[in-house]
Specification:
Elements lengths: L2 H9 L17 H10 L2 H8 L3 E4 L9 H7 L16 H6 L8 H17 L3 E7 L1 H9 L1 H10 L1 H25 L3 E5 L12 H20 L5 E4 L8 H7 L3 E3 L9 H8 L4 E6 L10 H15 L5 E5 L9 H14 L3
Parallel strand pairs: 1-2, 2-3, 3-4, 4-5, 5-6, 6-7
Helix pairs in contact: 2-3, 7-8, 7-9, 8-9, 9-10, 13-14
Length: 333
């Protein structure tokens, strides 16, 4: 059985030979340690026997910042995803790039060729989400303010973003991507970044449009959202998201509870806490978590084991290997 076959069975809530698995790894120091030990990141993935791979697009991004900056003051974005430079009015008029630009798809095509065709893995592709993308255009603080003060303009920006994403999604699926994975961080520790009512009235309409566009063309749609978003899991499932990552327990989510309430509708993608469990180096704690999540949630498929976000420099590679060895053993059907 290939990794891709294993993943698709789990997404269809069937039990393959074992729980499928993958991993996210940060760049920088931890990646340097991985390469030093295994020779390459690809060899590390082979060591873990991962079943899927997440591809990312190449440049340019959605906004044509170069064209915009020639007509406005020089690009004043700061570092990070939430340091957008524009006002909401600027964003509604800003030039967007062409989503058919070949450079966007070069790394995705490389991932398909190597990880899907040569390694037999399922390919997931990073896809812009409404709220998260707008953070990079107008900044999170401005966006949260405008969601309350000018919700109609925020919805108009979300619709612009979705129109761009439709072209990108169609191109990715035409290339052979298995799962569209929309990244849209909705939560923080213990609560959402905005109220569920604001989500439903302001964000949800465009998000549902993007989800429907995907589901008309593919049976699979995945969401990444950091933080707590338990209040709207049902809404997201109703939109057509049938897989979600990571159900971050360190932010207040509860994976066994999600399995009990939504296990027949939503595939759980995650399970290894890189914030409060893996960095401790406590093998008993790691074992208990793997037993609780993998052992307790594997029944009936619908589980993809993965780190809750990128494994970072505070984590030991030996502890990663230990967790995945346990997940392999406990995840057998």
């Amino acid at each position: 059985m290939t990794g891709r076959e294993r993943v698709l069975m789990a997404l269809n809530h069937q039990e393959p030979d074992r729980v499928p698995r993958t991993i996210w790894v940060d760049g920088g120091e931890i990646m340097d340690r991985v390469v030093e030990r295994f020779g390459s990141y690809a060899a590390f993935l082979d060591e873990l026997d991962t079943d899927q791979f997440q591809a990312f697009p190449g440049p340019p991004g959605m906004v044509d910042w170069e064209a915009w900056s020639t007509e406005h003051e020089p690009d004043r974005r700061g570092p990070g995803l939430s340091q957008g430079a524009m006002s909401i009015d600027d964003a509604l008029e800003a030039p967007f790039t062409d989503p058919s630009a070949p450079s966007i798809y070069e790394p995705i095509q490389e991932a398909i060729e190597f990880h899907q065709r040569q390694k037999g893995r399922a390919i997931w592709v990073q896809t812009p989400g409404c709220f998260e993308t707008a953070n990079g255009i107008i900044g999170m603080e401005n966006q949260l303010m405008e969601m309350a003060l000018q919700p109609d303009k925020m919805q108009a920006l979300y619709r612009r973003q979705v129109e761009w994403s439709k072209g990108y999604i169609e191109a990715c699926l035409a290339l052979g991507v298995d799962v569209i994975h929309i990244s849209d961080d909705l939560g923080e520790n213990g609560r959402m970044l905005f109220s569920p009512s604001i989500f439903r009235s302001v964000v949800s309409p465009a998000m549902a449009e993007e989800a429907a566009f995907v589901r008309e063309r593919s049976p699979y749609l995945s969401l990444h959202s950091c933080g707590y978003f338990d209040d709207v899991v049902g809404d997201l499932a109703d939109m057509g998201f049938n897989c979600m990552h990571p159900f971050q327990e360190s932010a207040g989510m509860d994976i066994p509870s999600i399995k009990a309430r939504y296990g027949n509708r939503v595939t759980i993608y995650g399970g290894l806490d890189v914030r409060h469990t893996l960095p401790t180096g406590d093998r008993e704690r790691i074992r208990a978590e793997v037993e609780r999540v993998v052992g307790g949630c594997k029944q009936g498929g619908g589980l993809l084991y993965c780190s809750s976000h990128t494994v970072h420099k505070d984590c030991s590679i030996d502890d990663v290997l230990y967790a995945y060895e346990l997940a392999d053993r406990i995840g057998r059907y």
